[in-house]
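Interim report, section 4.2 (structural modelling).
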Amino acid sequence: MDPLLLGLIVAIATILVLFSGVSVAVGLLIVSGGFLIVFDGVRSLELMPEIFFGKLDNFALLSIPMFIIMGASIASTRAGADLYEALERWLTRVPGGLVISNLGACALFSAMSGSSPATCAAIGKMGIPEMRRRGYPDSVAAGSIAAGGTLGILIPPSVTMIVYGIATETSIGRLFLAGVIPGMLLVALFMVWSLYQTWKTGDVRLIGATPYTWKQKIEILPRVLPFLAIILGVLYAMYGGIATPSETAAVGALLCLLIAMIIYKLWNPRALWMVLRDSTRESVMILFIIAAAGVFSYMLSSLYITQSIAEWIGTLDVNRWVLMGAINVFLLIAGFFLPPVAVILMAAPILLPIITTAGFDPIWFAVVLTINMEIGLISPPVGLNLYVINGIAPEIKLKTILYGSLPYVGCMIVAIILLCLFPGIATWLPNAVMGGA
Amino acid sequence: MTGQTSGAVARTGNNPFLRIVAAISMLAGWMSATMILSAVLITCQMIWIRFVLNGSTIWQTEAVVYLMVAATLLGLPYVQRLRGHVNVDLIPLALPRPLRKGLAVLTLSLSIAVVGVMLWYGSEFWHFAWSRGWTSDTVWAVRLWIPYLALPVGFGLFLLQLVADLVAVILDIDTPFGLEDA
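Predicted structure of the assembly:
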């Protein structure tokens, strides 16, 4: 059979199986096993466990559970609320300071915890009622937190970026750096929109500054700075060439656990088990998808599908930006339904040869892809963050949350357009710090 | 939309088989978590030896990788029990209860079949490593049947949990896909 036609059949079968409600990783194994039996015979199945094991047998993957433990330790404490309070106290005199401190807290906390739902819950629980009390419109209160929560998969250290780095064999260090400026750009766009919308529809009379004394501003810092110091220390150790991402992440994980125990008194065995349990659940889920996607990509390659698609795209006479547009639409739709990690692992082996053939930088593409995945997290009607916000702020109508999030989706699309026009936004920092690729 | 913790932990009712499987999966989860924690500690010890004591390390890198692989495989049944394996539940959500149950039986049966394949060939692979005395080509030269043992054990326990989930759905002890009726 023509490999391209076979590729189409595999794509349809994969969509059908994944939409049946089976778990993503098992679904990938089912599709791989089914096509291997039909086209390569039953004996080809004997390679599946070996490939599965081989995909996991990689020291770089260790950074995933390590960064997850770091995030889960931080998320289990009051660090989110403290971070929010600290920024509020320090930024109170800035016009619209509350929404700015909320977005800043979201960006920092989502980067530290690596979890969108945890960020929405930690910052939103305090931030949303406070913003509503102080005259900010509901759409801004809900939308800014939902959007801010997505930043963690872009701003380092990001598990999504690690998975992309492993799937495409690109430098994790470069990927982390590539996310920094686009992350700040997104925060800035979110802030500009929030302030504009607040000025237009909010109750401006109430948006006054709450005075804080210097004592109040200083006393909160010891509860916030240690975690930030660890994250910065981990990144410094990575870029200083002192240790690999996995090694620094392991030290970071241990230190975050210790700080959670010492500063936030998390020494109750039950609370510690919850951190370990959540980390185990998240890590096993991601590592299982990685291993299953490895088997899936072996099947694609064994049936000559990956190579044929890349060759076919190479012969197409389309403008490379049209191609990039089509890829973005595909990623956007996939991101509505699947978690970022699954999309990256399934799409990367097929898309990477296409984008490199078309002359795009894989590091730049990682940032575009990640912003697409962020859009999926807040796109009505399927975005996970919208339902988290609905859960923690039931007094805001779901419709307001859905409409409130749309302008932030617009901000992300603007960011993608800016990245296409000025790729340096993503590539300048990694090149400046680590030299040209 | 994607579901991960759409329902609470898989229900067992008073069924002894389901309760025993749940206990085994819980134990496997504890072992998996302990292995991940051990990997953190061993990596920190490795960094201490290498960067502080300026010594060389032999077994640590390999050990933590094998611990992570084993933690993943042993964690499969536990995460299945916690409904932590992410899925797309858009179609199950749209179906009426009887069809949803039918779809759950079908997907669980397919899952059991493919995990059965992984268990079968995983056991064969482990047996090769054991009977032929394979060792890793590193200084530590670990006997490979030890890390490969995670394949049959992990997939075996995962299979058991999937069978338990199927039984729970068929006997109406648990809801299909862990979804509650609206």
